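Hi W.,

Here's what went into the run:
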Amino acid sequence: MLDTVAVGTEWTVLLEEATREVFTMMLGCEVQSEAGTNSPEVSREPPAGEATRRPMIEVLFRDSTAAPDTGAEVTAVVGIAGELCGVFNFACGISAARMMAAKMLGVDETEAGDQQWDAIGEICNMVAGNFKSKLPGIGERCMLSVPTIVVGTNYRLRTVAGRRRLDYHFQVNQAQARVTLDLQR
Amino acid sequence: MDPIRTLIVDDSSVMRKIVERSLRQAGVNLAKVLEAGNGAEALTLLKTNAVDLILSDINMPVMDGLEFVRQLKRERLAANVPVVMITTEGSESQVVEAVQSGAKGYIRKPFTAEQVKDHVIAILGK
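Here's what came out:
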């Protein structure tokens, strides 16, 4: 686990590379990093003694009386288990998801239909797999889960505290998106 | 290249379409394209349909790609049809397992149309 695996800042570079390659090869799109939003390695150590046997991920549905979000989001979640244990998230707006699906399929956005959910899941899956393959000696001792998709305007995806987070914020065709890897200790 | 009949097996409908598009972009002459969402569906399709090439994901619900290839070979159902695995799981151990199961090739996602073409040409020898 992470105690024996050095999570270096270069892992953020690998996450960025993994993301770029997926978008270039599968969507034919260039990725632009969002300046100032990357946090190469954010360590969030748990308070001493805090239990870590909580669910890996929780989806919290906000109070419907809360202020509405500016736009619906879609989040794809892929778990990683083995030498590394954690969760990959890929999140973007609904319209961005539709654009990405259209790019992947080589069709107009109007023709993409409901394929956007499947497309976002595949993007997250490919980024996770591509990142994993860039960790020689570690990645091959890990397995990925099938993607799960969360869609809506009134939810917050929360993973268990006490982990390290790799974050990559970027733009594709002026649409914002982010890839996050939360690693459990 | 002669027209080929292809079966694409993936639980993602988007990925099935991408694989087909990549084959067409690469200039592969497709006579027929069948799609299945998992290994069990693929085995059912193969009972009534002849194909020249199978491209299959590994991680799928119901029946994964490795078990699909094993059953394909064991039941002598289209046993001679070459299978290319396409997956995000690109570890060496999985490549070995795929080959031992009977797969002829292995493409790791993300991929380009050229990579797909190279595998198809290498396997079909055309």
